[in-house]
Amino acid sequence: MTDSNAATRLKDIHAKLAQGRSDSILMQKVWAEVFGLPTDAPQTEDWVVEAVVAFRMELEHARQQLDNIGVPSDLTNHVFTRLKHAASPTFLTQQWAHHKSALVGIENTLVLRWCDWALRTLGEAEIEAQQFQSIKNHLAELEQLLNEPDVPPAIREFVQRQVNDIRSALRLYPIHGLRVLRKAVDTATGAFTTPDDQVVAESQTATPATKGVLRKSAEILKEAAEVTGQADKLFTTLAKYAPALNGAMHVVVEALSK
Asked: How many H-runs (helices) and E-runs (strands) does the chain carry?
């Protein structure tokens, strides 16, 4: 399993950014390609904005880590500033030609490679490709279950929020690494331990289809927690709140206990 740190991710993103392309391509499409996003989906603009904002945040995160180990900012600021400038959401309608010369130079590559080396002790294991794809596949299966007509509205909305959070975390994983998925797991854990009153009320008369939705969402949460190293914390938290969970919410505890 490969380890990566904040600078590893920045280096890998820059390598994709610096690849050859037509000067006339708009930056929105450039960033969509860099981050592996669809270039023509209805949500493309929103996803690209989400990604470039996250990328700018990761630049700040890496800079803070370099500060913490005593790396002078003047060794890296010129490169980090170029990248942050190019990732501004206000420039998404500009052409690649406006940013190309500042981004493709070997100096950028060398500085990012050196930062990767400097932060090497802060690396963490990356998600295996098959684990990543497994979570995505299970999310797609869950969304199919959510389309069942007898899934009540509050539970459908409740589960869809967890799906959206985890999908967002997977999109941002190449930028932020495991911490963005850990945050999604924490959010979903909190939601399952303290569900809304309407969710609890609907779970009292849950149909088999609704129970299947709750069970599947819990299984995905368990899978994500295992990937991020939060499984023990998840089980401990759910066990603490299990006596207070009513109705079909108990299938969540059962699914997580397997």
From this structure: 13, 2
C-alpha dist (Å) from residue 81 to 6, 24, 59, 102:
16, 23, 9, 10
Contact 50, 89 (CB under 8 A): no
Contact 172, 126 (CB under 8 A): no
Token duo for residue 72: 């002078």
Angle between helices 208-228 and 231-241 (to 10 degrees): 140
Question: Rounded CA gap, 126 and 107, in Å?
Answer: 27
Would you state the structure tokens that stand for residue 234, as one six-digit string? 């998840």
- Of 72, 61, 70, 69, the C-alpha closest to 83 is 61
Do 221 and 162 contact (CB within 8 A), yes or no?
A: yes
Asked if 32 and 38 touch (Cβ cutoff 8 Å), the reply is yes
Q: What is the tens place of the pLDDT at every residue in 47-103?
A: 999 999 999 999 999 999 999 999 999 999 999 999 999 999 999 999 999 999 999
CB 224 within 8 A of CB 166: yes
Contact 140, 29 (CB under 8 A): no
Of 229, 232, 224, residue with least CA distance to 257: 232
Asked whether the beta carbons of 204 and 247 are under 8 A apart, the reply is yes
Q: 0.85 cut: is pTM over it?
A: yes
Query: Of 248 and 28, which is predicted with more confidence?
Result: 28
The three-state (H, E, C) secondary structure of 226-244, written as one string? HHHCCHHHHHHHHHHHHHH
